[in-house]
Design goal:
The chain is built from 16 helices and 20 strands. It is of the alpha/beta class. The N and C termini lie far apart (about 60 Å).
């Protein structure tokens, strides 16, 4: 199936032929559905923090932060193209339109955007470009010149947003400045991810073609924010490694080749970032997407809950480490084993084993295996019609049941009712700990479930193909982690998925 040129291609990308064979097998067989046990809900897998809890865990975090190394991990490789999908559709139709005003009426969201253009965070730049050409923004709006405005926003001769990553697009405006989403993460990081030495570590995963632009942008704003918050930023940029790409196939599951006969590989989705995450060695890792960021007036709530989640993780980890140290000792009382079993069953894993004095050693081994894993605290938001995965109790092949974040595509039609019963969704609001009780880093790849990937249909040069995504970073890639779900307010979830989100109330600075 593979010729010498194929093998050289694999080698250049750091991919073994056996890995490609496994991917082809996945295309042929498909991935199995997740076996759900029940949705995680308040009182059954989702923790609801009281005001006293928030105060307590925030204090735990503030008391311990000076002794910890903290980093904020931000997936930022996504292009902004999807933000402007409807704008591109409008431009295509406007090419042959006789009456632009009538056409604009068929795009109500876009029409509202044009009428609200002065609320966009990059309106100042729009005005500058127009004024340089002798045009006036308000006059274009009154004349329904949507096409001209869209061209300025998207084209390289204007703002060039069509080719930019989301991190370099302006999200919020303030009286004295406007900020990109990248800048907003610098600001947010200074508020809750500052170590005792006033260092703020942020790790951005970006596309290779954008890494220089990110670095340039950082150098233009670094000093301003360091002086504003009296911190020192330590910023890392990494890319999605080529060896995490997956082979594309035709509709008959044969390797897809381009016009030159070369096998085509595609990015493996956000699950490919597990390797980037695996390279971090900090004590606490906050994870949040680049497009989920709020203006200053709403950051206080985010800070409060981020610190509370981190404090909960610290307290939870302390208890887990204490139990693990007991389990590796020669003598553990039956009462202590019962306590550990109750803790495990109440917080992370439903076990079928019972405490039997005659099998204490086997039970100690089982408990150690369950407890000695990476830990994550995952914020969950009440369902409000937002797409995405949700929190569930998932039954494993060994009979145990643990907490996981599951995507709708992973759920069989027979279990669709359980999906409907789900009360919360995943906003990607994580705090993670990746060291064991001896301070050694876990190999995160050991806790990934390889059977939780995704197969999707795409097109390349107009030809239909199948693509394969690796287990999602917060889905199957963390299937073997110990997980606590915590309810967080909807106000902490402010993603920008389309340009229209920028004029929603939560993204206005006043």
């Amino acid at each position: 199936m593979f010729n010498n040129e194929d093998l050289e291609l694999f080698k250049s990308r750091g991919i073994l032929p056996e890995q490609v064979e496994v991917q082809l097998e996945n295309f042929r067989n498909g991935f199995p559905f997740i076996r759900l046990d029940a949705p995680a809900t308040p009182g059954n897998g989702i923790i609801q923090l009281s005001d006293q809890d928030i105060e307590k865990y925030t204090q735990v975090y503030e008391d311990r932060i000076a002794q910890l190394e903290v980093v904020k991990f931000i997936p930022a490789s996504g292009a902004a193209t999807r933000m402007f999908k409807e704008l591109f559709a409008y431009l295509e139709k406007a090419e042959g339109a006789d009456n632009e005003a009538s056409l604009l009426d068929t795009f109500p969201s876009l029409k509202n955007l044009i009428l609200s253009v002065n609320r966009l965070p990059f309106v100042s730049e729009l005005k500058e470009i127009l004024e340089a050409e002798g045009q006036n923004l308000d006059e274009l709006v009154c004349a329904n010149e949507a096409r001209r405005l869209i061209q300025i926003i998207l084209s390289e001769q204007g703002l060039g947003y069509a080719d930019l990553p989301k991190g370099l697009i302006r999200f919020h405006s303030y009286p004295d400045q406007s900020r990109t989403s990248f800048e907003e993460h610098l600001v947010e990081g200074a508020q809750y991810a500052k170590s005792g030495d006033s260092e703020v570590r942020l790790h951005f995963t970006v596309s290779p073609e954008h890494i220089d632009s990110f670095k340039h942008h950082l150098e233009t704003v670094r000093v301003f924010y360091e002086e504003l918050f009296r911190v020192r930023y330590i910023i890392e940029f990494t890319i999605q490694q080529p060896h995490t790409d997956t082979i594309a196939v035709d509709m008959n599951n044969n390797p897809f080749r381009d016009d030159d006969g070369q096998i085509v590989f595609r990015p493996g989705g956000h699950g490919a970032l597990l390797g980037n995450l695996n390279g971090l060695d900090q004590d606490l890792i906050f994870i949040k997407n680049i497009d989920n960021i709020a203006p200053d007036r709403m950051k206080g709530l985010t800070k409060q809950y981020k610190q509370a989640l981190a404090g909960l993780l610290i307290e939870f980890q302390d208890r887990v480490f204490g139990y693990l140290r007991d389990l590796v000792s020669t003598e553990v009382s039956i009462d202590r084993l019962k306590e550990i079993c109750e803790f495990v069953g109440a917080n992370m894993c439903k076990m079928e084993e019972q405490v039997d004095p005659g099998s204490a050693n086997d039970l100690k081994s089982s408990l150690s295996k369950i407890l000695n894993r990476p830990i994550r605290i995952a914020g969950m938001v009440k369902n409000a019609g937002e797409p995405g995965g949700g929190p569930f109790w998932v039954r494993q092949t060994d009979g145990t049941v643990n907490l996981q974040i599951v995507e709708p595509a992973q759920i069989s039609p027979e279990q669709a009712d359980l999906l409907k019963q789900s009360t919360h969704f995943n906003p990607v609001d994580l705090v993670c700990a990746v060291k064991d009780y001896q301070g050694k880093l876990f190999d995160l790849l050991e806790f990934r479930d390889p059977q939780t990937g995704f197969i999707t249909e795409k097109s390349i040069s107009g030809k239909p193909v199948k693509a394969q995504e690796l287990p999602g970073l917060w889905n199957g890639s963390m299937a073997g982690w110990n997980t606590l779900f915590v309810e967080v307010p909807i106000e902490t979830f402010t993603p920008v998925k389309t340009i229209y989100d920028l004029i929603r109330e939560e993204h206005l600075s006043d």
